[in-house]
Amino acid sequence: MTPPFLLYGKPMEKVDKNSITSADITRFDIEEELKKIPKEPGVYLMHDKHDEILYVGKALSLHSRVRQYFQTGHGHGGSLKIARMVSQIAWFEYIVTSSEMEALVLECNLIKEYRPKYNTMMTDDKGYPYIRVTVEDAFPRVLYSHNMKRDKSRYFGPFTNAGAVHDTIELINKLYKLKTCNKKLPRDIGKERPCLYHQIGQCTAPCSGAVSAEEYRKQIDGAISFLNGNHKDILKSLEEQMREYAASLEFEKAAEARDLMESVKHISDKQQMSSTEGEDRDIIAYAANETDAVVSVFFVRGGKLLSREHHHMRATVEDAEAELLAAFIKQFYTGIPYLPKEILVPAEPAEREMLENYLSDRRGSRVTIGIPQRGDKRRIMEMATENARLVLSQDMERIKRQEKRTLGAVREIASLIGVEKASRMEAFDISHISGTLSVASMVVFEDGKPKKNAYRKFRLSGDIGNDDYASMKEVLSRRFTDERMEVLPDVLMMDGGRGQVNIATMVLDSLGLDIPVCGMVKDDNHRTRGLYYNNKEVEFPKNSEALLMVTALQDEAHRFAIEYHRKLRAKNQVRSVLDEIPGVGPARRKALLKEFKDVEHIREAELEALTRVVPKTTAEAVYEFFRR
Predict the structure, then answer these.
(1) CA 212, CA 203: separation in Å to the nearest integer?
(2) In the chain, count of helices (H) and strands (E)?
(3) What is the pLDDT of residues 17-63, one digit of tens each?
(4) Least C-beta-crowded within 10 Å: which of 62, 70, 471, 542?
């Protein structure tokens, strides 16, 4: 069945930070994007020009907080560190949440995930505390935990107030008279007298055999019920105690009861960002208009929301919700290696049972597709839907601008030189030093985007020297006679003018290939100014997207060639140094580099460490060589 939606004529395409190109970053208009930020709580991520995440922060109002960074004299708090960070921001993104507390937890998760450079004060692994109930024990305890482990215990949290967690654990132990000691029960029952906590009425003393495992389990069930949010009876009881203490002028005890009430109220402010079950699940939500749709996928791992993706697609008003969801699930989960135990969707997808069976078969265990009706699952679904709406209303404009810069530029290039299409363009560049270690690069742009898995590197013949024309003739001949590279370009882009074009045309003619060949012409400042095609120069219109596309293609070919040449030079230098050492041949050189990574680490290695890799006599030769 044909999917009911397409993205720019192709099957659904993931749109995330990995698809952001240098052209996107260059054209990201910060002032315009600032106007679109909603006045809602959430988390924002600042990126630099290389698309690295510089900073992750939270805000009660994203609109106000993010704008502060870009206002002169505001938002930096007098910090030179933050000022430096702001100077490096190339673009930003954000995730809307339902409350500032949710934003706080998500902020922590994202910082742990990405460890941004400017979040150095928040990158420790302490995180937020949990309450752990050791239900696997015969006589369980309620404990404070810094993290959630994959064991049989029940975990509640994470919480943002460590003091409130300690107070709540203390309260639970008092209310339900739970054991707090480390005694191994039932092994140690009766070995010692009950401790002070039993004497003051805060423990039922299971260590003495005064309470059975079944009776103690009822106490634990009450504690779990409390942690699950059943607080009304406890709060009522505490309020009565507080009034009684106050009436009898026991103000210290009244204040203690009051403080415990505040702790319970704080804990009862549930955090929607985390599940108490620690499960892995995906939450799928979407928003659509007459022509486009956005599907948001939120990833919950270990009970914590770690990240999200947005997928844009074309849709029509005739597309049924059930068909749209089913098509998305089939396309999305076919291409990813990990499937969660549960997938939540906003409505019943078409062929739900079939989809569950298909996903279960791929995962190797049961996968369920559910529709949340209430509680935390429903609230996080609403949050995902709201984010999808924001992306649809705000980011689709950016996506359409990106389409203009990619497919629009490709169509403009085809029109300028008068060819039918220029969907696949290939460009070549030569790199050498005085004719030595000559290499060539081939880069490919498809539909205006780099297709890096199609890039190729060529090591050229040593007798060519610094003859760029001969080098180009060799690399083109090899490229177009290699059966593994059977897909041909629509347009061939040469890094030069008439001479390079003539060489390419001669090679193509000799092979019987009819491919348009353009020379990428530069001005006196080494900037691309036009194309040389059919013995004449084609000028680009002012503010042309085609010019920017050709410049990007030319720069990428040059970068790829230089990168390969540097790698070869470094490798050649390494070999020449190690080959001077007696007893070091290709096999031992390879073993040393595999162990120590580079020559500098070999130079610094002690004799004992070298001996573990190569024979003792060779190790001594290496050690002495670098200490002469």
Answers:
(1) 13
(2) 22, 20
(3) 445 556 566 677 888 889 989 999 999 999 988 888 898 888 889 99
(4) 542
Q: Domain containing 432: what range?
A: 424-570
pLDDT digit string, tens, across residues 433-486: 655 667 888 999 988 889 888 899 888 776 565 677 888 888 899 999 988 888
Amino acid identity for residue 354 in this structure:
M
| CATH code assigned at 493 | 3.30.420.340
DSSP secondary structure code for residue 137 in this structure: S
Same domain, 53 and 189: no
Q: Is residue 621 part of a domain?
A: yes
Beta carbons within 8 Å of 16's beta carbon, 6+ residues apart: 309, 310
- Burial class for 345, CB neighbours closer than 10 Å (0-12, 13-18, 19+): buried
d(CA 309, CA 383): 13
> Are 317 and 358 a contacting pair, CB within 8 Å?
no
Whose tokens are 């389990």? That residue is: 217
Same domain, residue pair 429 and 566: yes
State whether 315 and 445 are in the same domain: no
Residues pairing with 537 in the sheet: 532
Q: Are residues 302 and 221 in the same domain?
A: no
Token representation of residue 532: 């040389």
* 489 strand-pairing partners: none
Q: Residues near 160 by Cβ (< 8 Å), separated by ≥ 6? A: 101, 104, 105, 128, 271
Domain of 592, CATH number, reads 1.10.150.20
The pair of structure tokens assigned to 128 is 């937020």
CB 323 within 8 A of CB 315: no
Residues 592 and 551 in one domain: no
Q: Can you tell me the distance from the alpha carbon of 387 to that of 384, in angstroms, rounded to the nearest whole number?
A: 5
The residue from 546, 570, 594 where one domain ends is 570
The CA-atom distances, in angstroms, between 365 and each of 326, 348, 442, 507 are 20, 21, 45, 56
**Do 318 and 189 share a structural domain?**
no
Identify whether residues 372 and 448 lie together within a single domain. Answer: no
Are 332 and 312 in contact by the 8 Å Cβ rule? The answer is no
pLDDT of residue 490 exceeding 90, the answer is: yes
Q: Does residue 8 form part of some domain? A: no
Task: Report the DSSP pairing between strands 53-59 and 42-47.
Answer: antiparallel
Q: Which two tokens stand for residue 213?
A: 């495992």
In the chain, how many domains are there? 4
Q: Is 460 exposed, middle or buried (0-12, 13-18, 19+ CB in 10 A)?
A: buried
Instruction: Judge if 52 and 35 occupy the same domain.
Output: yes
Closest by CA position to 54, among listed 25, 105, 90: 90
Domain assignment present for 405 = no
pLDDT value of residue 3:
29
User: d(Cα 469, Cα 480) in Å, to the nearest integer?
Assistant: 17
The predicted pLDDT at position 401 comes to 74
Residue 595 placed within a domain: yes
392, 411, 438: which is the final residue of a domain? 392
The interaxial angle of helices 468-481 and 498-510, nearest 10 deg, is 30
